[in-house]
Amino acid sequence: MKLTDQFPILIIEVPLIAAALMPIIGHWRRKWCMPFATLALSITSMIGYYLMLAVNKSGPISYHVGAWKPPFGIEIYFDHIAAFAFIIALFGLLIVIFSKNYAEHDLEEEKIPIFYTLVMLTLTGMIGFTVTGDLFNLFVFMEILSLSGYALIAISGQMLTAMASFKYLLVGAISSLSVLFGIAFLYSITGTLNMHDMAKMLEVARAPHVASVALTLFVLGFSVKAALFPLHIWLPDAHALAPSPVSAILSGLTVKMGIIGMIRIFFVIYGVHSAINVMPIMEILAWMAAATIVLGAFFAFFQNDIKMMLAYSTISNIGYIVLGLSMAPFDKSKVAYALVGSLVHVFNHAMIKVLLFLCAGAIIYRTGLRKLSDLQGIGKKMPITLAAMSIGVISIVGIPPTCGFTCKWFIALGAMEGGKSLFAALLLFGALFIFAYYIKILNTAYFREPTEAIANVKEVPLSMLIPIVILAAGCLVLGAGTLGYVPIKFIEPAAMALLGR
Amino acid sequence: MTFLSKLGTNFNYVISTLLFVIGLYTIITKPNLIKKFMGLNIMETSVFLAIVSIGAVRDGKAPIVESATKVQYVNPLPQALILTGIVVAVSTTALALSLMIKLYEQCGTLNADKLKEFE
Q: What span, in angstroms and rounded, lies between the C-alpha atoms of A155 and A160?
């Protein structure tokens, strides 16, 4: 009985206990909330790092909660996809470090412990969501992360935030309910809640119609969480009006949970060879994703508000990820370029979008302005922040030396390989649009003279600069050179395992 | 006839689907936010009803083993799941109501059509 055997449960427990202790610490000494959150998330990310290395070395880890054997007890299944929990903890840590100045500056003092409690809770929900192997647990963790997310949007108490939060809550609750209804249907035909057991039972059950109704409900629910095209209406307001660190969490990490839910449902439960063939769900998703890419980029182009622009760009990028997922080749002769590309893009987009929202937050922190037209010449006043933001911009467009290039290249390769060149064309079209609207940011930041409104603006304090610089370095290093292959090398066995090879 | 008898034996799914759709209809059509949220609560109840009814067994006993004789038991797992589900639903309701209080303080109305003018 070693401590390392208990790591799969500790990665959920540590942030959860920290969230429970946070109000007590906040009541005692408000200043200690942020160091405590930093400590808890450092421990969590170290545990995550250990588990990631262990998975890479010797394959998936199955942990039985309370030593109850899987189909009866709850299983934590830490595979290559669950390694995203490490990314959540690490980026959560960077965001918490960034929020120190934000929380002191923008929030009332008694709200600071609540803020950190909610951040820890939402991160706990996400980590639990990625690592669990039990379908009902998936729902519970989804509710934990969503509920604390709704509350975080409205935490500043400013005008309109409550409205954005309520809109998100209503749509999010409907999506959670449709996922729960799907779970009910699957449970009624399989009699189990463990994902791997359910996959086996589903083949025996021979109830393709019930299974496809459940699949429809799951796709509906997770598409809302991931903000696919007709179901994206809640996202722009929620992500743009939330405080900047919260936007970074929501946009970089929370929307990815919809994607991870889809991966679990499509590849683990329904698997390669059963009810997924009853209906052309992948075809439908591919078209929804294509529409998401083009329309997200289109709307982003006309935004003047810098955070609104980033929010629409999130919608567009979710389109890329889902497009790659939907083109996963189920016949064994083909290489799974698209799937690898989209899994890498889950990680890359998290990194880029957290970076961009933190940069936007830094700009808003110093200037109080969020309209692009007010921010002319900001690059001369805040050189480091804007340099990092430029790296983020170049990455999200997908220009070669940065990390955004590889995944988009892989998704396009997958589209060509699957004989769907139309999607490859749409993908390139979307990338061009993205380039067009991000060039606007670079243009106003560097090639205009500073206006009077920002004449006295200084660079942001060190605690904000550190996370930004780390993330920008990550975008550069993980895109090219020897380290550039690390995410792909890591993701490839995951894709193979998902396709059952 | 077989279709009708099938409907009769599976009436729990029919009712819960009906309630689900009624709730969704309420959310989409009613402008008042509290009514919208009541629709959501109807949807929640419908899903809970569906899950609880999965575990039901006609003439089933509570699953407490008292003697060695064979008795039909009700499946307790769905009920345990629904307890969790109810807790989640209650906290969603609490959060939504507190958001509505905030909205009413700021805008003075809970009508979705009038709230659009504030955006």
A: 11
